[in-house]
Amino acid sequence: MTRRLYQGVAGVADASESLRTSRNCRSFDSVAGAPSLRMTMDGGVGNDCDPKLREECGVVAIHNHPHAAREAYLGLYALQHRGQESAGIATADGQHLANIKGMGLVSEIFTDDVLAKLPGRMAIGHTRYSTTGDSALLNAQPIRVDSTKGLIAIAHNGNLVNLGSARARLERDGAYFQTTSDSEIIVQLIAHSPAGSLVDAIADSLSQIEGAFSIVMMTRDRIFAARDPHGFRPLSMGRMKNSGGPDTVVFASESCAFDLLRAEFVRDILPGELVMVSEDGVTSRQYGSGVLQSSCIFEHVYFARPDSRIFGRWVQESRDQMGRQLARESGVPADVVVPVPDSGVTAALGYAEEAGIPFRFGLIRNHYVGRTFIEPEQRVRDFGVRLKLNPVHNLLAGKRVILIDDSIIRGTTSRKIVRMVRGAGAREVHLRISCPPTISPCFYGVDTPSKQELIAANHSVEGIRQFIEADSLAYLSLDGLLQSVRDERNVGYCTACYTGNYPTQWVDVEDILPAAVAL
Ligand code: SF4
């Protein structure tokens, strides 16, 4: 079998593709507006940025709320950082399942008028950046399917790694697929399960698939939430008290969503756990066990918001520790510690405090740059980075600067930032990275360039230093990273992108293709 790895970061479908797909899609779901996107800020078509690694999705579910769709909207709004390509909300009113999804940001798709078309006291929602299946609206989630087990809506975060064999088996059994997304494979497995009850069928189906998945599912009268047995992606449960009635139960990829909903954090869904919420209350079962937990450590390094608690631990605390450990491992005399905003900020604060060097916002991020912009006729050198970041000259001029960032992917963006800081008059620029070198692609829901494109897979640290033109470069050690996220809970972490040691037995690489390839 030809081994094909991720080819790069997917772009967003252009207007004609979006509209063409949306027409196809209306046969089974409603579609909100499909805005025309000419260019994206985070590595989209034609961008000269070296993009960050991108998370695939965020999910949310609401049970028993009079404005379930609006609550799901708020939850997705708080999870927007986990995917900006498309979003969707499905609701149930005990009889029917409504489902609306569209291309773009949550706030662009779900206006008051659109939310008014989503009645019911239950909702699931999804915000997406795709890595598997094409990036068009057809594969936006939730997916609603009328199956032999009744109407089911499903949304998931992660990537299955044995979907090729599962899909082939289902097609032999007569399954007909409407999309190329992992979620539909799960629904088809449920539909084809010989188990008598729906909850048994879900447990049976989830035990047949391998890879990373945090799932929310909804029928006419029940909500389900589950995590894969390795526990790759986060998923938490929260609760809102209702005076004189049963509580509202909520699920979200990250606990920061609960704050906006004014929900109280209850607990993480356990790896291999399936939770069901109905009018009879909350029940749980362990459908998968016997594998070691391998939660994604990169969630702590970069993806999750610092105000979230994931895998039982505050992300802010982890990043602070990464910065402190980095200072202990690779301190260098300097005048100022400067984060690459926004994701480098928390680690930089920890570094500065540990090293006793002043922390300064020496790079300012333009928060008002939208996802789209008009490309100038004459391409300005380093335009993408300069549009997003600007140096504070008076803080940097004549200084020995320690720059803190959370990753180097291809190296081109890091070089632009180093040049920018030096161009603002810095005497020395020392780059410090709050995780080990990224040497291997991710197969568990993170969009990673191929190994050939990962600079650390092909160059020594000294080689990378020369390429990015820094005076010195150091990464946090793997031991240092693990130490930074370690606590009494003893959570097991996946570190495959730093080690090449994958926690699942095999990877059906042929099927894990980026969106751009499928378009
Ligand atoms: S390979 Fe890296 S990004 Fe992917 S799940 Fe493992 S730690 Fe996370």
List keywords for this structure.
519 residues; alpha+beta; 6-stranded antiparallel beta sheet; 19 helices; 26 strands; 24% strand; globular; binds iron/sulfur cluster
Briefly say what this structure is.
Helix content is 29%, strand content 24%. It is α+β, with helices and mostly antiparallel strands.
Provide a descriptive summary of the structure in words.
It is globular, with a radius of gyration of 23 Å. α10 (about 315-330) packs across α11 and α10 runs antiparallel to α17. Strands 1-5-4-6-3-12-11-13 form an eight-stranded mixed beta sheet, with helices on both faces. It has a six-stranded antiparallel beta sheet with strand order 7-8-9-10-14-15, with helices on one face. It has about 525 residues and is α+β, with helices and mostly antiparallel strands. The model is unreliable at about 1-30, about 35-50 and about 510-519 (pLDDT under 50). Helix content is about 30%, strand content about 25%. Bound molecules: iron/sulfur cluster. Iron/sulfur cluster (SF4) binds next to α9 and α18.
